[in-house]
Amino acid sequence: MPRRPPYGKTERMDDAPITMRKYTDFAEIKADEYRYWQSRPAQERLDAVDEMIEMAYALKGWEIEADVPRLQRPFVRLPVPWR
Q: Is pTM beyond 0.85 here?
């Protein structure tokens, strides 16, 4: 898997214009964010999840080894209502 540049130092690969929006309501932000991610292809969403996992590991100071299965345990345990 190719390594990505550090967070905040990504390179733009296209000349697509950047759209900036001004919001007045947090619910509006979340709705727009949801619509955006639903419009992206599944592979792009999975890549974003992978990037977030890598950032979470980096924040904890952990290294992700290439040949080790990942997500062996969750970061947070949620209560299960049927137990």
A: no
